[in-house]
Design brief:
Elements lengths: L2 H12 L24 H11 L11 E4 L6 H18 L4 E7 H4 L2 H11 L11 H15 L2 E7 L1 H8 L3 H8 L8 E8 L10 H7 L2 E4 L5 H15 L7 H13 L4 H17 L7 H21 L3 H17 L3 E2 H14 L7 H14 L2 E7 L5 E7 L3 H7 L4 H8 L12
Parallel strand pairs: 1-4, 1-5, 2-3, 3-4
Antiparallel strand pairs: 6-8, 7-8
Helix pairs in contact: 2-3, 5-6, 8-9, 10-11, 10-12, 11-12, 11-13, 12-13, 13-17, 14-15, 14-16
The protein binds a DNA duplex (22 and 22 nucleotides) through helix 6, helix 16, strand 7 and strand 8.
Amino acid sequence: MSQQGLDLIFEQILSGGLVFRDRNLLRHDYMPATLPHREEQIRRLGSVLAPALSRERVSNLFAYGKTGTGKTIVTRFVLDRLQRKAKDHGRAVDTSYVNCRLAGTNYRVIADLCRALGEDVPFTGLAVGELFDRLRNALQSRESAFLVVLDEIDALVKRSDDDSLLYELTRINERLDGGWIGVIGISNDLHFKDFLDPRVLSSLGEEELVFKPYSSEELYDILKDRAEQAFQEGVLDDGALRLCSALAAGEHGDARRALDLLRVAGEIGERAKEERILESHVRMAQQKVEHDRVTEVLSSLPLHSRILLISVLHLESARKESSVTGDVYEVYRGLCSAAAVEPLTQRRISGLLNELDIMGIINARVVSFGRYGRTKKIRLGVEPQAVKSAFGNDELVRGLLEYAPRGLPGHQGR
DNA sequence: TGTCCACTGGAAGGGAGGGCTT
DNA sequence: AAGCCCTCCCTTCCAGTGGACA
């Protein structure tokens, strides 16, 4: 491309481009001035948290609903307004937002909370009890209200199979006479409550807030609101907007998904130098969004999961039917020895297969063959081509893609 | 009706890699 | 440096299981 051509692209982007006026409005972390169809939840959450302004303790709250139903943005929205109000009136309200799935462990969640209060803590090494002490001391010395948002709180409980963190957090106020802590738990698993200790549940679930999936019409309103400012006038076809809403509504009313589709559709049109964004662009966007998700997940897989996935791939291309755990494990061991890698045990592989299943990369189903035992039937859940291209950069694994394990077709499936 | 297969999945624990306090 | 305590990733052990078969 000539330097002039490149210059032109940059200029176009700087002037907002032919398609977009401001594409950032279509990102899901963008905070709009209003949140359509969530007035009820905003009011409820606002009234639960309002006492914080006068330093009174607030009830803990538990918000649940599926992904993209506005839980996170509503919470952030209300906290943001609350903090502004507090500032106007010279009151101190500290807030912290932690995504428990990203944080990963109890330790890291509390460490994040400590840091939000200005307490410097190491990323590992301390006893959890010690961290709690530090958190308590920080709260005590600040004498402020501390509102904590624990997003994807279910990940924490399920992973560590231990809700002591939540128990301690909800009880921390009992031993404080200066500041206090209010917990807002967010979960997209509606059955999450079943995992909780009744004591935690009664304390955390003092208030409950439910986020229903958006309907297609509601999504349309949300998208229209943002699209009007995000796109240049007259660029976006109304049919494209309707299709985005309908597709996302089909996927449990996910606003995040709808915004992604719209943004990617715009970008596809922009790159093709189209003057209008039509339904066809949304269809292409849908494919691209899915492809990107798979590629991202695949490229973040650790070595053994990669070898395992290649084993499934080999079996599937050799047989055209689903394989069982034992067969997959055998091929996996073969590949490991070809790559001079120490294989993991079958128990561990069984766990990895479950993980791949949850991610949607394979489909695994427990079946019984009666006299011939009980096992998992395993099929690849993504396009073989996607696996090959995602692993293309991995020298070690790329060799295994070409490697033909011995005795594959002769080994009959049942 | 009992047996038996090929696993599944829970539980416990080891050890590597890390940091803290004394 | 020693003694703790943490997480992460893994192994070992083993009870449990659905359903075809004798």
